[in-house]
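Here is one chain, start to finish.
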Amino acid sequence: MKQVNNKKAFSMLTAIVIIVLMSSVAVFVMNISGKIVKSTTAQYQNEQAELYAKSYTEYAILAVTGNDRATKCLSTINGTIGTPSSGNGYVIQTEIAYIGPSSVIGNCAGTRKLSTNVTSVETPLTVVIDVYVKYRDPDNTAQRRIVHRRSIQKI
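Its structure:
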């Protein structure tokens, strides 16, 4: 009779050890899964910011070509995507500076990036476009991340 009780107790002890081991493995898997999700989210936000920077660069080139520099100087383009105040959006700031002779630049001479004046009439209009995309870090909403893209384009 005693042998039957010992076998039941040993089976119960084995079951408890297996449950503890399985729960440890489950905790480990959940921990790894959480880190992968966090990493994927951060990578997604960074890639999205890079794409917004590229898109706003192309938009700035289009806006400069369609703008009449004799009457108005286009020096900034700003935009927001999503709701940046809640941490789920992007703030885009685009700064445009012009390089070239005054006859080509028009009223935009004050935005020059070069300290010297280009005097050659053959020099085409060139713009320097700086795009800054700001977004919040998903782990630390008080911290902002910034993606910067600088492009030089002949118009």
